[in-house]
Design goal:
The structure holds 3 protein chains of 3 kinds. By secondary structure, chain A is of the alpha/beta class. Chain A has 2 domains: 6-92 and 174-321, Rossmann fold (3-Layer(aba) Sandwich); 99-173, no CATH class. Helix content of chain A is 34%, strand content 21%. Chain A has a 6-stranded mixed β-sheet with strand order 6-7-8-3-9-10, with helices on both faces. Chain A starts with 5 loop residues before the first strand and ends in a 23-residue tail after the last helix. In chain A, 49% of the residues are buried. Chain B has helices spanning 20-26, 59-67, 90-98, 117-126, 135-142, 159-172, 189-206, 217-223, 241-246, 251-259, 298-302; strands at residues 3-15, 32-44, 48-52, 74-79, 82-83, 100-103, 177-181, 209-214, 226-231, 234-240, 308-310, 313-315. Chain C has one domain (23-36, 80-303): MetI-like (MetI-like fold), CATH 1.10.3720.10. Chain C is 72% helix and 0% strand. Chain C has 11 helices and no strands. In chain C, 45% of the residues are buried. Chains in contact: A-B, B-C. At the A-B interface, helix 8, helix 9, helix 10 and helix 11 of A face helix 6, helix 7, helix 8 and helix 10 of B.
């Protein structure tokens, strides 16, 4: 019915402290249509995981959503009561985290965990739930699924566990999956398997995926569109090919230049001086201006612009004039 | 050019048996993990040699043996002509050890939180009875921090700055060889670039030799002169950088290069590699890679291939051409 | 930015203190009691253990009431010998606290050293140390202390027994409490020794002793201080128990426990103040120190590294 599965409008997350208020996510807006993968990329402290947690309603106290809207299939979910939100998770939103062990109960057979999730969210009989559990494991590529369904999480390898988590996220047929660094803990060969799996699921089922990662290579190969975050704000948002090959924001540009992949043959990498500012010590104006190679007077004085007011791609006053 | 480091037939076996009582009750035999098996390679002076491999490949174990944190079960490590585990002259070993330093993966765990940066940096000198007066301040400026930072504690620095302090500490001993164990895998991309650039600069300035241990092919491709690929504790291919990336011979190397995400790989459909890394306690017979190898034959299951020269590469595969 | 984190940590410490009424009250009580004990010779109106100043006629004076023979008034009354209970408590607390601090220090030095060695050396050395600790844990601490006290007393010459009693007491309580320290320090050492800064020190040729004392020890002291505080309360109670049972501080150097033992003889004859006031003091001392330890543990726990 809706053209977008997830729509985030002006999301703002705050952490009240004793003396001040931190704002790890500020004014973030994006949409994900069905069957689309949105890559959210940024360095540690950029607020990418916090954004994902806000969407699934799993913000750790004392962080809370202080402003903006989150719409799932056209319905607001940011103000739902806890119980309703809990039912929504799993049913409408699946989750895949970096460490598969945190998502699996070590004391339950994976079959029990799958069946329980299916029975809770779907109106099916026990028999059918059991069949669906096996089917889900087969779909994520676990060999001999009917036999392995009685295994405990520790009996699987890291890559297989991550597949089980994906099966668990999928089994209630959600319209959105939030994958937070799903391959960071895995070896290269297993990472390639998991990425291929996510892509095929997205294509075959039309599931929308929000893929949070720090790895530009993973984003390039997986995502349709990419959101680059810096210090809690969106720096750039657009189709992945355009953003990565022709960045409009100086931060994206610097990030691409500092990736060893992009600098084939060059002896030195382009480096961005300094480090991501701490949340309790954000610079005035555009948060990136102290590290920006083409900073102008305006950047230090006026707060960073919205993406919409700068042509829809990058949150930079001089987005079009990037000399790369 | 001469080889600064020469590693011959290096093997390290860990006893991973259960306690004897459990073995007695459960009728379990002793279990051994061959973390490193018969690995030989040379590192030329003033070059960067990289060891790549996935988890369980034994790359970190080799690094720890070279710096002396672990003893080999078999084989030898020669640095500057001194065989570290057979030389009888203690002073010679001490002098050689002094010239080998290490940079660790986790910049948060590798600095003692209770020590001032000054004391941390001069530790290699001070632990061997030397005097490090003014050394910390000089080195801090060399790695891009300020002399005033010497009086601070590690918690006042970001991850990238801490890694700079680790580099300064490694430099304090005026080393010839620095073993870098995943030096940037805990850092963000933009900070990683700073640290890699610093490492390159210092190599030129001091004529350093690096052994770079990493799982990240992009870093290895950027930094290394020569690369060794490890699988399950064995060296399966070794080649100069360009030869390895343009013309990988071993099917495992090919798979690794192919599976690594690429920045220009928009919508690339990779045929995902099959299988997973086997249990290193019970490795497959013959070539350890054969269960996952697309071109494996009966011979690969039965017989273990030895390293052989092929063009510029050394490769342990019967079928490589 | 300079020192901002350590300042934040310190202010957190103080902030958490200011938010905990229990900690504030405990702290005030403990400071008053310990201060009073330290300053006893200045505060105490009488020197109760100098026989020359005692007047038997003052015996059994009720608190706050003039003695019927001498007309003197004692705040907390007197005992059978005419000793001022308030003064005996002040001096008794000195003994109790001295024994407590000394025993805990002894237990701490012993336990921390053995824990460091067990954790860092591991292997058979570690196994033997920790097995001894496990075996000792299966006996009640007070029993161990009595056993050690008895054995040690047997070895001291008779004419030295009273002088040595305090030191034997310290030895006994210290030996019965080292296990806590050893276990915690061993656990923390196992974590620290695998950290990369220890590996860096090792490859730079620092000796095992140097690594234990200079690298690991400073990083395991947080939990040790928590245990030391809680152990202090336990040591004070253990000392009182031993003295109450008559195997602790001698009557010539009475601790709070000795005072309670003396006082219990008069409980049923109506002289309640002789036992009540030392008991209340012991309770306040042990409770305040214990609560402070609990609070300290809660504050430091999330920061245990």
């Amino acid at each position: 019915m809706a053209e977008v599965v997830l729509s985030v409008r002006n999301l703002r997350v705050e952490i009240p402290l004793r003396r001040s208020v931190l704002c790890p996510v500020d004014g973030v807006s994006f949409d994900i249509p069905p069957g689309d993968i949105l890559g959210v990329v940024g360095e540690s402290g950029a607020g990418k995981s916090m954004t994902g947690n806000a969407v699934i309603g799993l913000l750790d106290r004392p962080a809370f959503i202080a402003g903006g809207e989150i719409l799932l299939n056209g319905q607001r979910i940011d103000n739902l009561p806890r119980e309703a939100m809990r039912r929504l998770r799993g049913k409408e939103i699946g989750m895949v985290f970096q460490d598969p062990l945190t998502s699996l109960n070590p004391l339950l057979q994976i079959g029990d965990q799958l069946r329980e999730t299916i029975l809770e969210h779907l109106p099916v009989s026990k028999k059918e739930a059991a069949d669906r559990a096996v089917a889900a494991l087969e779909e994520v590529g676990i060999p001999a699924a009917a036999r392995r369904i009685d295994s405990y999480p520790h009996e699987f390898s890291g890559g297989m566990r991550q597949r089980v988590v994906i099966a668990l996220a999928l089994c209630a047929e959600p319209s959105l999956i939030i994958a937070d660094e799903p391959t960071t803990a895995l070896d290269v060969s297993v990472q390639a398997q998991i990425i291929a799996l996510l892509k095929s699921l997205c294509r075959e089922r039309g599931t929308a995926i929000m893929l949070i990662t720090h790895d530009m290579g993973v984003i390039a190969e997986t995502a349709d569109r990419v959101a680059v975050m810096y210090a809690g704000r969106l720096a750039e948002l657009g189709p992945v090919r355009e953003v990565l090959t022709n960045p409009s924001h100086p931060y994206t540009n610097g990030l691409m230049g500092s990736t060893p992949l992009a600098s084939k043959g060059k002896k030195r990498l382009n480096q961005i001086p300094g480090a991501m500012p701490r949340l309790d010590n954000l610079p005035t104006g555009c948060a990136f201006h102290p590290r920006c190679p083409q900073v102008k007077k305006r950047c230090a004085v006026e707060p960073g612009p919205d993406i919409e007011s700068c042509g829809g791609r990058a949150a930079c006053w001089f987005a079009g004039e990037l000399s790369s | 050019m001469s080889a600064l480091v020469s590693i011959k037939n290096l093997t390290r076996i860990f006893d991973v048996s259960l306690p004897w009582l459990n073995r007695l009750i459960e009728h379990q035999p002793k279990a051994f993990l061959h973390a490193v098996s018969e690995v030989s390679f040379d590192i030329e002076e003033n070059t960067i040699y990289a060891l790549v491999g996935e988890s369980g490949s034994g790359k970190s174990t080799i690094g720890k043996i070279i710096v002396g944190l672990l003893a080999p079960s078999e084989g030898s490590v020669e640095i500057g002509g001194v065989d570290l585990f057979r030389e009888s002259d203690k002073a010679k070993i001490e002098a050689t050890r002094n010239g080998v330093q290490m940079i660790f993966q986790d910049p948060y765990a590798s600095l003692n939180p209770r020590w001032r940066v000054r004391d941390i940096i001069v530790e290699p000198v001070e632990a061997r009875g030397g005097d490090g007066e003014g050394l910390a301040e000089r080195l801090l400026e060399q790695v891009g921090l300020s002399a005033a930072d010497a009086a601070k504690y590690p918690h006042e620095f970001s991850g990238g700055q801490r890694q700079r302090i680790c580099i300064a500490r490694a430099l304090a001993a005026e080393p010839k060889l620095i073993v870098c164990d995943e030096p940037t895998s805990a850092l963000d991309v933009s900070v990683q670039a700073q640290v890699l650039n610093l490492m390159s600069d210092l190599q030129e300035e001091f004529g350093l030799t690096y052994l770079l241990i990493s799982h990240d092919l992009t870093i290895v491709q950027h930094m290394a002169d020569r690369i060794g690929v490890l699988y399950l504790g064995r060296l399966i291919e070794e080649a100069p950088r360009d030869a390895l990336f343009s013309n990988p011979k071993h099917p495992y190397t090919k798979m690794l290069i192919d599976a690594a995400p690429r920045l220009d790989g928009f919508g690339r459909e990779v045929e995902p590699p099959t299988g997973e890394i086997p249990d290193p306690i019970n490795p497959p017979t013959g070539c350890a890679y054969h269960p996952r190898c697309p071109i494996a034959t009966e011979r690969c299951k039965a017989e273990r291939p030895q390293l052989r020269e092929l063009d510029e590469n050394r490769v342990a595969c019967f079928l490589a051409v | 930015m300079r020192d901002s984190l350590s300042r934040a940590w310190k202010s957190d410490f103080i902030w958490s203190f200011s938010r905990s009424p229990v900690a504030i009250v405990s702290f005030i009580v403990a400071v008053i009691l310990i201060g009073a004990a330290v300053l006893a010779p200045l505060i105490a109106p009488h020197t109760p253990f100098d026989p020359g100043t005692l007047n038997l006629m003052n015996g059994f004076s009720q608190p706050m009431q003039p003695n019927e023979f001498t007309g003197e008034t004692f705040v907390l009354g007197t005992d059978d010998q005419g000793r001022d209970v308030f003064s005996t408590i002040l001096y008794g607390m000195r003994i109790s606290l001295f024994v407590g601090f000394a025993a805990v220090s002894f237990a701490m030095v012993l336990g921390v050293s053995l824990g460091l060695i067990a954790g860092y050396a591991g292997g058979w050395t570690g196994t033997i140390i920790m097995r001894i600790a496990d075996v000792q844990l299966t006996f009640p601490g007070i029993l161990v202390a009595m056993l050690i006290f008895g054995i040690a007393k047997g070895f001291t010459p008779i004419h030295l027994r009273d002088q040595m009693a305090i030191w034997v007491l310290i030895l006994a309580i210290g030996l019965s409490e080292w296990v806590q320290f050893a276990r915690v320090v061993r656990g923390a050492t196992l974590v620290e020794k695998n950290k990369e800064y220890v590996q860096a020190a090792r490859l730079n040729g620092r000796s095992a002793f140097g690594i234990m004392t200079r690298h690991i020890l400073p990083n395991v002291m947080g939990p040790v201080l928590v245990i030391a505080t809680i152990s202090l309360a336990l040591a004070i109670i253990a000392e009182a128990t031993l003295s109450f049972l008559g195997v602790g501080a001698p009557p010539t150097q009475p601790s709070l426990g000795t005072l309670i033992r003396i006082g219990q003889g008069f409980l049923f004859s109506g002289e309640w103040w002789i036992i009540l006031f030392p008991s209340v003091t012991l309770l306040a001392l042990a409770l305040s120190v214990n609560l402070l330890g609990d609070w300290l543990r809660d504050v430091l726990n999330p920061r245990l590294r």
